[in-house]
């Protein structure tokens, strides 16, 4: 057996462990009883240790570094480069017992987060969050870093991303958008208040919301032969392959738009996974290449396609069919594009959304600026509230609308949030390029997503993690990434809606 064949045999064994862990984690979030959390976390800890030992050993290291790289085909070259980065530059630096304990901790931490959020009780979750942070600081020290310690966590989600790059990105956002937001946010307040009051004054039965969410995902061409949708506390997407992609949403009886747009957002993620070619999936290059690219796909569906006037008419008609609408189509369009200084990131409007992400970025950057400092959850919660007051002039009155609103930290996903803003910026540039090839408005008017999805597959989705983010953006748009498309898109869209002059 040659070396590359043996390597893939080992990776196939590891894929089985990862498959089991994904399904157990999915079950824990969607189906499992609360009291099962401890036993499931122990099982996940055991499986993570087995996965670790399958990859981090002398045999794999000897194979990876003993291969004649120049003799490999392009797919195998990329596979080897990814393994060197993910295993020998990252995973192998962390002792197996530490890795296993952390896996158990993160599972329990996620459960405690859900409990704390539902009860607005930070004390239930605080020690777990503090321990998750401590572990991540230790991981940075194990792995080593250049420049700011937080660079290491940022680059886990977007290759070569640094605080310098993100600082510059958010400086541009602050300079260009903050004055614009302050002006827009004063417009049409009474009109929106009246529309919102009428829209939220009635009940939208959850059983009908579920049917509507499924119908919308089908319009977007989510493949239910290779996917499923369930309910969870925090919407998410997970998958074991391009043939098994699972999404969740969360329903509120008085606010159907929350579930609708969570479903659309997660469907964007799911379509990316479902459209990866088998040749990459089968050769361990499946899955999105980065969280920034992944978020670009969820955001392009959520905002640029499904809040587009060309699509919202059909969405309005669907909602009228299921619930009966007490507001007009024009009022509905304005409601979908309401700009408001709000507290909840996942419900934030498109214009203020990057500010929510920037707040989390600044908090994380500070947390990981000192690897020896012990963090206090209560202190972080206060800083969270202070930043919301500083940037958006609103202050959370409960932990659930503050530090407890996001699941990410409970799972140790520090460095993730920046990818949301980066993804939004990617999506604007991708949309601009797509418009040159497709009459997007006409497609959306007809609820037709086949041409849109085919374009995304050709330019982005099919490659899985074979092409790097920079190459994908260049391939899709014909130029390197530029945030100007994002700023221009937001200013052009909202200046028209709110009749504000762009300066």
UniProtKB/TrEMBL annotation:
Signal peptide: none annotated. Gene3D superfamilies: 1.10.1370.30. Its cofactor is Zn(2+). It catalyses: Release of a C-terminal amino acid with broad specificity, except for -Pro. Keywords: Carboxypeptidase, Hydrolase, Metal-binding, Metalloprotease, Protease, Zinc. GO terms for biological process: proteolysis. Binds 1 zinc ion per subunit. The keyword Zinc applies. Its EC number is 3.4.17.19. PANTHER family: CARBOXYPEPTIDASE 1, METAL-DEPENDENT CARBOXYPEPTIDASE. Broad specificity carboxypetidase that releases amino acids sequentially from the C-terminus, including neutral, aromatic, polar and basic residues. Belongs to the peptidase M32 family. This is Metal-dependent carboxypeptidase. It comes from Streptobacillus moniliformis (strain ATCC 14647 / DSM 12112 / NCTC 10651 / 9901).
């Amino acid at each position: 057996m040659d070396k590359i064949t043996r390597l893939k045999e080992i990776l196939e064994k590891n894929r089985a462990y990862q498959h089991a862990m994904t399904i157990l984690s999915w079950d824990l979030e969607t189906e499992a009883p609360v009291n099962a959390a401890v036993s499931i976390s122990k099982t996940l800890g055991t499986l993570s240790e087995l996965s670790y030992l399958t990859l981090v050993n002398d045999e794999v290291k000897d194979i990876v570094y003993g291969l004649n790289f120049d003799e490999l085909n392009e797919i195998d070259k990329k596979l080897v480069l990814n393994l060197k980065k993910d295993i020998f530059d990252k995973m192998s630096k962390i002792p197996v017992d530490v890795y296993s304990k952390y896996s158990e901790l993160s599972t329990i931490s996620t459960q405690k987060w859900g409990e704390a959020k539902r009860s607005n009780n930070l004390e239930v979750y605080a020690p777990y969050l503090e321990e998750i942070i401590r572990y991540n600081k230790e991981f940075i020290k194990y792995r080593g870093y250049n420049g700011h310690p937080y660079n290491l966590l940022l680059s886990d989600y977007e290759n070569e991303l640094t605080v310098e790059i993100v600082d510059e990105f958010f400086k541009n956002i602050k300079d260009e958008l903050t004055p614009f937001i302050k002006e827009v946010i004063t417009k049409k307040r009474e009109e929106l208040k009246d529309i919102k009051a009428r829209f939220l004054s009635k009940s939208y039965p959850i059983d009908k919301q579920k049917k509507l969410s499924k119908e919308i995902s089908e319009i977007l061409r989510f493949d239910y032969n290779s996917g499923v949708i369930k309910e969870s506390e925090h919407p998410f997407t997970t998958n074991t392959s391009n043939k098994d992609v699972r999404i969740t949403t969360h329903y509120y009886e008085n606010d159907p738009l929350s579930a609708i747009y969570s479903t659309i957002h997660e469907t964007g993620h799911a379509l990316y996974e479902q459209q990866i070619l088998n040749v990459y999936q089968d050769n361990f290059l499946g899955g999105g290449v980065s969280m920034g690219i992944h978020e670009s796909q969820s955001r392009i569906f959520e905002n640029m396609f499904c809040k587009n006037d060309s699509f919202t008419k059909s969405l309005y008609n669907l909602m009228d069919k299921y619930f009966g609408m007490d507001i007009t189509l024009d009022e509905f369009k304005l409601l979908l594009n309401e700009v408001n200084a709000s507290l909840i990131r996942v419900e934030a409007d498109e214009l203020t959304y990057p500010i929510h992400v920037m707040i989390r970025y600044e908090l994380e950057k500070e947390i990981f600026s000192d690897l020896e400092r012990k963090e206090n959850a209560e202190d972080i919660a206060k800083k969270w509230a202070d930043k919301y007051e500083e940037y958006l002039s609103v202050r959370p009155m409960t932990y659930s609308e503050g530090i407890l609103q996001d699941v990410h930290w409970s799972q140790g996903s520090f460095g993730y949030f920046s990818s949301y803003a980066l993804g939004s910026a990617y999506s604007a540039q991708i949309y601009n390029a797509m418009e040159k090839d497709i009459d997007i408005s006409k497609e959306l008017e007809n609820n037709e997503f086949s041409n849109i999805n085919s374009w995304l597959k050709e330019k982005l989705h099919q490659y899985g993690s074979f092409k790097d983010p920079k190459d994908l953006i260049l391939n899709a748009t014909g130029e390197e990434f530029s945030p100007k498309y994002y700023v221009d898109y937001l200013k052009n869209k909202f200046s028209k809606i709110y009749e504000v002059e762009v300066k």
